[in-house]
Amino acid sequence: MTDTYIVHGDIIHAPALDAIEHIPDGYVAVRGGRVAGIYGELPAEYAHMPLHDYRGRLVTQALCDMHLHAPQYPMLGMGIDLPLLEWLNTYTFATEARFDDVEYARRVYDALAAKLVSVGTTRVCMFSSVHTDSTLALMQALEDAGISGYVGKVNMDRNCPLSIREDTERSIAETERFIDEALKRFKRVRPIITPRFTPACSDDLMTRLGELARASALPIQSHMSENADECAWVLELCPDCSAYWETYHKRGLFGEKTIVAHCVFSDEAERAAIARCGAWVAHCPDSNVNLCSGVAPLRKMLDERLNVVLGSDIAGGAQLSMLQVAAMAVKSAKLRSIATGGAEGCISATEALYLATSAGQVFFGEQPGFAQGNEFHAIVIDDRALQAPPSMSPSDRIGRALYTTESADIEAVYACRKL
Amino acid sequence: MTDTYIVHGDIIHAPALDAIEHIPDGYVAVRGGRVAGIYGELPAEYAHMPLHDYRGRLVTQALCDMHLHAPQYPMLGMGIDLPLLEWLNTYTFATEARFDDVEYARRVYDALAAKLVSVGTTRVCMFSSVHTDSTLALMQALEDAGISGYVGKVNMDRNCPLSIREDTERSIAETERFIDEALKRFKRVRPIITPRFTPACSDDLMTRLGELARASALPIQSHMSENADECAWVLELCPDCSAYWETYHKRGLFGEKTIVAHCVFSDEAERAAIARCGAWVAHCPDSNVNLCSGVAPLRKMLDERLNVVLGSDIAGGAQLSMLQVAAMAVKSAKLRSIATGGAEGCISATEALYLATSAGQVFFGEQPGFAQGNEFHAIVIDDRALQAPPSMSPSDRIGRALYTTESADIEAVYACRKL
Description:
Strand content of chain A: 15-25%
Helix content of chain A: 25-40%
Strand order of the largest sheet of chain A: 3-2-1-4-15-16-17
Structural class of chain A: alpha/beta
Number of strands of chain A: 17
Oligomer: homodimer
């Protein structure tokens, strides 16, 4: 019966990009881990169900972190004064190389999984390292912690240190082993095809990963158009392509189940291709600023109806809290708006909430918000300590939640059951 | 004897803008609340003193928040989708008007003082509201909590709602009463002359505040060149001035003891005037982004040897933690660097630490860093939970502290004694 209960509190959720719904002093009925209904007053038929009473606290959706690098957790907040390619070579690859040690991986990943829950993240789309067994250890850690989503063993066979470079054959063979094991062992954490990014993957590797994606019907994640130097390099490496997105599309890696991080430098044509193919953009505002990449045209992407989700992108990003990342999305959109003299608009706090929650849910095949039938993924924020002014609108309360919540303020986290 | 003790841990402090000093597994000897010395090994003469043992944790300087609005604490994180002047009229002035109720003020200010200590802020330069008695209640709350610095009763006699507008005579009379009472009642929290900003203060009020500042030898705080619309308005309001800074300078309010917040739009000439007069800039990067003001030219200011300190500027800023504000200073400098095609450089994490700590200390008449003779203001950050890579430089450890510390990670706060 741990997955059948009533949650009571001030409920705010995001059923659409431009709308939040507020049920003050309301009730969510959860049956079998799924939302059965939301009510202003509790219906008599639910009177016997266990009541989780958070009266006065904010009950909202749990967060989806749609792009992050698990093996970079040990370097959180470090070395982010360098531009992307230099940072990769100085810090990142060396840190990731340590994950050939499965015991070390298990220690780091258990800590990461616990930390994710503490900041209210219950669904992820995550990069591991090239190491198959450590990747399986990561999936185990997430599943044990109650987190669901996708995890990918990284593929790379060029332009990276030998310590983490794979032979193309071995990269494919290990990916097949990874997929087999992962599908056998885990229920709520699933495998995803993960070419690191075009510079680190030969055409042959990309083509064979594309075949694997089609044969296995698995989704795909990678990086795209993050940094000006990287974009130029990609076009040098792939003379048969005239845009970054084509380097994935031509190898069968760009469609409705593809999620690409960043797209800071995706121009109008590339954004149109993303929309046409139904691919997903994981916007990572904290990382893009830290690595001096720039600010992605988020407002334009939303107006052009692209599928956009948010990612912490640790350890390019240094904020694991997706509430903080959502606040950073609002801030960096403002900076882009200022830089364009107001030609590009801002995004609101409630839009940021949607992107950090509902948008990810949709990627995972659910409805936005606390829709009936959805798995119940929720957080309870105790925001009573702040002295509120006499009137506070629901959107102000969400703004305050994004801008001021620390993990200690998150009183409870749900992913079907209370974690 | 609560102000004579030894603190043991990994000591990192910022004796200069471009340098940190690291004493791993070191000792700070504190006598009578002041730094007596820093040691790699504890001298025999100190063996009998009480030892506060934080082995393995980071011991660094406590934070100085050099610009914030205490009565805006109840609206933290709210309404920051609006530009400055609209935000002032919709949210801010209404919130501040409630502080004519001293009991309400006391409740909010006790909570604020406790929160400041919890985020490691021990020195402040703070705006209150126009209300004298509530301002004295604020000073009492800070002094009781162990926080020191300056607090100003705000002056404004035009261009604001009647509920908080003062008659010029009364504004001066109340300021005199405020100064008398404050100097009598408080030891570590001192009064500061606080014209809100030029648009809200008549020439007559400004002139008389300038006379009061000279007669009392008190420092002065205000706002300057925050927002493009505001800058244009100021020049309309003061036809005798050709730049914003002159509106303070001509009334005797701009000198070595003046601290002005923002300076986002201070051009080369205004910055030269700031340097020439020895005035201080309180850079408030979080607020400047939230209110769509822009990004101040921090790198230029530092290269031009201006006196720069940092402020949270709550509630335009939504981050009370000066570690987070310091991280935001690094991020927004990056964005300005990107926007100028690299013409303006970035600032490092260690420079940000200096600005958030030592720079404020210097404003308060102390030496930078944990200099001998300084009051001992320190925080202890427990950063052991994060799995560190094999080698971590002191600057990486500082970067990590700025980017990832939550208040729960701050294990102890010192301001002469342990708070």
